[in-house]
Structures are given as structure tokens and as C-alpha cells.
Amino acid sequence: MSTARSRPLFATTLAVVVIATVGCGADGGVQTTGALGERCNKDGSCQRGLVCVNDFCLSSYGYGDPPPGDPTGGDPRPGDPRPSDPRRSDAGPGDPITPPADAISGLTCLDAGVPRARKVPSPGDLVITEVYPDPVGADTSSYREWIEIYVARGPVDLNDLKIMITTTGSPTTKQLASADCLSAATGAYVVVGGQSTATDGVGAGLPINNFTLPNSSTVQRAALALQAGPVTIDQMSYPLPATEGTSYMLKAGIVDAALNDDPQSWCLAGVPNPPFSGIGSPGLANDVCAPACREAATWRAVRTPAAGGLVVTEIYPDPNPPTTDGNREWVELYVATGPVDLNGLSIVVVTSSTSTDTISAADCIAAAPGTYAVVAGQGAATDNVAAAAVITGFALPNSWTGHTAAPLSINLGSTVVDAVSYPLPTTAAVPPSTSSLVGRSYQLAPDQQDAAANDVASAWCAAPGVAGTAPAFVGIGTPGAVNPACP
């Protein structure tokens, strides 16, 4: 799918705060935010629908006023230095810090300033569709995490909706609170996240103060649940540790509160959606699972090769002149089964250390069956090598003290697609010829193009011929074409 998609707007962008936690400033006072139940802004203002009463933001329709017979608005917390302050720690009527228990707020919200009955969601009305637990870089206290909620049946009001987050022990509870109606229509994708999601280009329709999600734990999964009062509206879990910079999403087309219980219904997101700086689709219908690539203007799943689907047929480890290799090394792959995409493949070489070079490209690098695809460093074009995939900084070792070969494999994640080795040092003659691999490729015999046959050293040889005999290539070898017979 194309990334040029419009983002549906949520019905309100009113900032909301965590109910259970009150942040404090350096002076020990409550942070100035102008939100419900918190201190008024310095100019005496509050968010829309709230009024400043005794330095605290309360609802304009009397939310937090003491009910008849309760002049204090609820019992004060033991040791509370403000016994006459309407802000209380209990769940009694009139207590602005626990609005779900308030006889007024539990039934109504402000719709354009006018109180009306709240439309409380029922089980299945809301579906968790995407989770972003691990923003790129240091995310401790950065509050850039978010979740996406799809409204399957609406309209509903999200006022007082609880987000229950559990790894070990008791769940952490975050809660939406606002005097205004947090109304969401059927088909809306609502983003609930920390106050700093805009740093990553995410406009959280419902920001929660200090909202975070676990990205690692001693357990393998973190559980999320949405609750309205005591009723669970939806629940799911996501794997730990989380993948940095990539959301965990419900597969495209699945927006069901029962189906999202199954881990098989989920995957890592594969498509970037600017201005979001990560991989995912906050506020949009979910797209293609990872791995994904772009073909023309459309994203699709990468066609990954199976083990043996690609065969290493030629290696060029030591460009000539040898004084400067200049990232001109390359590896040729024969496509035994296809079509496949080269996106995400890694070339892994082991000597005294292990080097891993991965093909990272947004556009699909397609390879048809029966063709030869060259993966090369950025300098290979200097030698007139037409590479299917270019890896910046790619190089191959040409010596290893005390060893006569370098293992090389083509990997896709944990899957080894093919594995071979080539002789070292490259300055030594490759039997049965007297030629070295300086400026010459190490090639597989054309009748041995098989992921098992190429494991045997006798199936390989130094490329025959002299420099300049192959079309365009200035070295000795046949990058991108069938190999000649070995001598």
C-alpha cells in the first residue's frame, strides 16, 4: 500500500492526565498543567471545560463540589496539610482525583460545554490494534510510547477508560480523564500515548502524562487490557524484549477483540508512515507486516528465499590493484527458486571476528529464478560491476593468520540460506591452477549450482581467463553471468 494516506482526526485533542499519579515540581508542588484535578496554570486558566477553583482545575458544571452534607468533599488523606482542599485521595463523592466514583462524572461529560450522558464502551467495542513500546534511542522517562485503539462499534466516550499494563506482579494502571467528552466514532483509530510522542512525529489524540510501556522484563510477554469500570473491553499481549523503533501490530484486516487475543494475529510492522519516525502506522489502518518492501508506490511483503533457494556461485575478495580494495568486493548468488527479494539478506563472514553486512533498502530488490544477482560494495561500480544490491562499506577479508579459508554464509535472520568458504590468503595459488585470487574471482563450476554441491572445495576454482575478457568487468570473473567451466 502507498504511504500517502490521510490520517483520520480524533473528535478531540484535549490533553488528559493519569488519574492515579500526581507529578510534583522541584518545589514539591503539583506540576502546572491546567488539567482536570491539577493546579491551574500560572495565569489562572485551565483546559476547556474546566474552571479554576481554589487553585485547582475543576469541571465547570460543579465537578468536585461537595455533595449535600459533605462540606469537605471527602475525607482528607491522613496528614494532608490542606484539610479544606477539595482535592482528596479517597473515592468519595466530590473527589476530583477519582472521577469514576463521582456521581456526576460517572454519568456525564461535557459536549461542547453542555453536560450529556456518557456513551460507555462495552466489550468488543474497542480493539487494541498497535503497540509501540520501544522508541529509538533512550526512552527512559521520554514518554514516547503509544498504543492504538480501533473503534469497532461507536460512537463511544473514552472518559475514564483504564489501560492496564502487566509484566510481573500487579498491573500498572493509566486512565483517561477529562471533563469534555472524549468521543470516538466507529472506524476511528485513536492513539493514546505519552506527552512526548510528537517528538517522533506522532499526534497522540489522547496524551497521558508520563505514559510508558515495558520493553523488557524477566517474562516473555507484556499484557495490556482496556477497562471501563470493572468491565474488560479488550485485552492482548506483546512479546518481550520489544523491537526498537518498530510497532507491534494486528495484521491488516483483523480488527476484532477476540482475534487479537491470538499472538498469531500479530506481527512487527513493516511500513514507515511519515511523519512518524519509526516503523508503524499510528492513527491509520495497519499495513504490511515485516519484512516489507516498496514496489513502485506500493508496499508489499518481501518474498523471502528458503534455505537453498539462493546459491553462492562466485566470490571476489581481493580487487586489483591490491593497494586499495575500495569496497569493490562482491558475491554472486544464483537464484535456484524464485522469484525472491534480496531485501534483508545478510552476508556473514567469520575470521578472527564476525562481520555481518545486511541489504537494507526500502525498494524491493527482486530476483527472478535462473538469474545471477551480485551483491557488492559501493566501489564495485568502478570495476564496471552491475550489482543488484549495494551495501555501503561491504568488504571481504583476504587473509587470516593461521587459517586457510574464510567461512561465508548468506543469512536471513536466523535462517542460513547458503554457506560456503573461500581460500586464504588470496595471494596464494588456488589448486589446481597457479593463479591467486588477487583481481580474480573464486567461482563455482557451472554444473555444481546447488546449495549442497557448493559445500565441496573441489567444485570451486580460480576463475579462468585473463582480465578484460568478461563483458565490461575489468577483473577476471563473470559477475552476473553463468560461470565458465573450471580447468
Structure report:
Among the domains are: 126-301, no CATH class; 310-462. It is built from no helices and 30 strands. With 487 residues, it is mainly beta. The protein has strands at residues 50-53, 56-59, 108-111, 114-117, 126-132, 146-151, 156-157, 162-166, 172-175, 183-184, 189-193, 206-207, 221-228, 231-239, 248-250, 266-268, 292-295, 298-301, 310-316, 330-335, 340-341, 346-350, 354-358, 366-367, 372-377, 389-391, 405-412, 415-423, 442-444, 460-462. The chain starts with 49 loop residues before the first strand and ends in a 25-residue tail after the last strand.
Summarize the structure.
The protein is mainly beta. 0% of the residues lie in helices and 29% in strands. The protein has no helices and 30 strands.
Mean of residue pLDDT? 83
Shape, principal axes of CA atoms: elongated
Q: What is the makeup of the main sheet?
A: 6 strands, mixed
Structural class: mainly beta
Number of strands: 30
Note poorly predicted spans: 1-32, 59-106
Strand content: 25-35%
Tally of contiguous helical segments: 0
Cross-sheet strand order for the largest sheet: 12-11-6-5-15-16
List keywords for this structure.
single chain; 487 residues; mainly beta; six-stranded mixed beta sheet; 0% helix
